């Protein structure tokens, strides 16, 4: 699966590519309260698996 995001060409974008990082807006900044809801049964997951979502 690939996720695409159009970004401006600047130092922050280049650093994100170099360091294999991704940036997300905070959920409280979204205009739809259901945009950032993550329904994952955490009790059934290991700590390693949970960290993949963070």
TrEMBL record:
Superkingdom of the source species: Bacteria
UniProt-recorded name of the protein: DUF2971 domain-containing protein
Lineage: Bacteria, Pseudomonadati, Pseudomonadota, Gammaproteobacteria, Enterobacterales
């Amino acid at each position: 699966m690939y996720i695409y995001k159009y970004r401006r060409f600047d130092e922050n974008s280049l650093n994100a590519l170099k360091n294999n990082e991704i940036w997300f807006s905070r959920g409280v900044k979204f205009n739809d309260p259901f945009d950032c809801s993550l329904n994952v049964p955490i009790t059934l997951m290991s700590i390693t698996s949970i960290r993949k979502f963070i």
